[in-house]
Amino acid sequence: VFKASSSLNNFEKMEKWHGKNAIVTGASAGIGVGIMKELARNGINVIALARRKEKIDEVVKEFGDGLKGKIHTHKCDVSSLESIKETFKWIEECFDTISILVNNAGCGFNIKALDTSDEVTEKLDKVIDTNFRGLVHMTREAVRLINKSSDYGMIINMSSILGHKIPFVKVPVNLYPPTKHAVTAFSEI
Hints:
Elements: E1 21-25, H1 30-41, E2 45-50, H2 53-63, E3 71-75, H3 81-95, E4 100-103, H4 118-148, E5 154-157, H5 176-188
Parallel strand pairs: 1-2, 1-4, 2-3, 4-5
Helix pairs in contact: 3-4, 4-5
């Protein structure tokens, strides 16, 4: 698990990655936007993925022309293995290899996991499929393309403080913390 101090410049000398390809999931909002911009600012070509490609395109337009790396956007729903496979087929056809994967996509709902309604069941499955199952499948596909590059690469799995310790507060029992615990355990193995 990558632990940043103040910016992505601290994770390693950026020159090594200049001109290489990085995938960022969840690139349409929040932390994903910041990661995408920082990588491209430092000369890394970013393959920005999200369920809402139009949102990434809007954000990229706001960046202007001051970035050293290129940003390529593509629709990918990491909760769907079919979408992941299609996306990696496209990435391999267009870019051949990658060097970095930032598993940033995630979701959570304020629900009670023990509620047996169909609506809650759908949301629970979405949390598991996005936060953990999708991260595993993205990593498996990324490792294949990193190995194809004949160079080492980097995989950054975004977790949460809730992936390490659950505070004792009255909150609905939901699956966000367990999926983030799973991300931590998967990263460690």
